[in-house]
Give the backbone structure.
Amino acid sequence: AEVTGVQTCALPICSLSLRAAFAAAMLRSRFSRALSTAARRPIVGGNWKCNPASASKLPELIANINACDTSKCDVYVCPTPLHVALCTGKFTNGAQLAPQNANFAGCGAYTGEMAAEQMVDMGIKWCLIGHSERRGEFGLPTPKESNELIADTKLGYLLSKGINVILAIGEPLPVREQGIDKVLEFCVEQLKPAVAHFKAAGADKIVIAYEPVWSIGTGVTASPEQAQETHAALRMWLAANVSPAFADAVRIQYGGSANAKNAPDLSAQPDVDGFLVGGASLKPEFADIVAAIAAAK
Ligand code: 13P
């Protein structure tokens, strides 16, 4: 009878007390501490976006990437779709190509799209999806990609073809101005459709790029404290909603006006596992960013 009694009331009590514990942990730490001491190999990506204007500049940009010491840090590069094939086989230090987008339906009558099957054929192992510039930010008059399209349909499609995914997320300024709880709420909506895929794929197939919209291309970087607080909050949510092992192992990059100057302080934050770099990835200082995080971890 005693066991039955426990069983009948244990579930609601348990879930309530778990929720209370979670809330208390959030309040206590304000997400400022690392959740674990797991050793995660750092990873830095260079997102060239729609650059360079001339393919004649590619050798110079590729040289910047090849100047990176990758012995303690993974590196990937996202060239514009037109230039992906021109960069294939050009990296001498193990840097990986990661296209900036993918379709979700494979090859066929999909004008202007890129298929995971084509990536596999070209030996490409990574793909970036969910960049805020594809989520309707910055006033581009293209249809917004929804959280479900990105984190469920596209993510699932890429993983099913054996392509690893960098999933970019991040909040706009009005959300940041409301504080960390609203930031977490906003980012969680971007992550929720991915949960089943995260569980099935495991952490080594996924990188999360946290890129606050207000810091992208603005020269305004998140402070090390803001980056740490947000990364730790995301990791805590992943621990509760995917698994502690996934949260422990998955790499969370910071993106948004990262450069050689601010990389050392950001790298010192325990939950910052790397960077997704825009503007500075077009410059020689990209190698300094890689060196900074490699030295810090
Ligand atoms: P910036 O480094 O130019 O701010 O761009 C960040 C970014 O959007 C990388 O994907």
Summary: The chain is about 45% helix and 10% strand. Residues 105 and 287 are 36 Å apart (CA to CA).
